[in-house]
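Is this the right way to post structure tokens for a design question? Let me know if I should format differently. Anyway, here goes:
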């Protein structure tokens, strides 16, 4: 799994996080049926978070670069898990801001995947 896979996964995760926010917004404005879609999409988002984390680790190991993307990817997986639990418990006071945090992390990881071509290609020089 290389840099291209990381870029694809980071964009997929980012787009799915945006979809998740849109589904939430439509749900809270009255389309109650979209809560089912929101819950189902949470499962997809969780899977994408794990895949993105794995791809980040593999690219990072090959590149021998700064470890912040790996740390951020691991945090993403953990935060998505907490987010899922808060959503199931209907704890919107934490669920909504944490969703914004997830989107911010997704943006940071996508930025790294595209703006750090040496890291994505796996070049080892610092």
């Amino acid at each position: 799994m290389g840099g291209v896979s990381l870029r694809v996964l980071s964009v997929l995760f980012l787009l799915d996080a945006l979809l998740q926010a849109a589904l939430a917004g439509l749900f809270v404005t009255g389309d109650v049926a979209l809560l089912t879609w929101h819950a189902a999409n949470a499962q997809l988002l969780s899977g994408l978070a794990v895949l993105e984390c794995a791809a980040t680790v593999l690219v990072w190991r090959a590149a021998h670069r700064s470890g912040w993307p790996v740390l951020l990817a691991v945090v993403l997986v953990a935060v998505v898990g907490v987010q899922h639990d808060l959503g199931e418990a209907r704890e919107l006071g934490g669920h909504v801001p944490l969703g914004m945090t997830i989107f911010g992390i997704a943006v940071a990881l996508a930025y790294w995947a595209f703006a750090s071509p040496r890291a994505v290609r796996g070049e080892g020089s610092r």
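Format looks fine. Someone answered above. Worth noting: The longest helix spans residues 34-63. Residues 2 and 59 are 6 Å apart (CA to CA).
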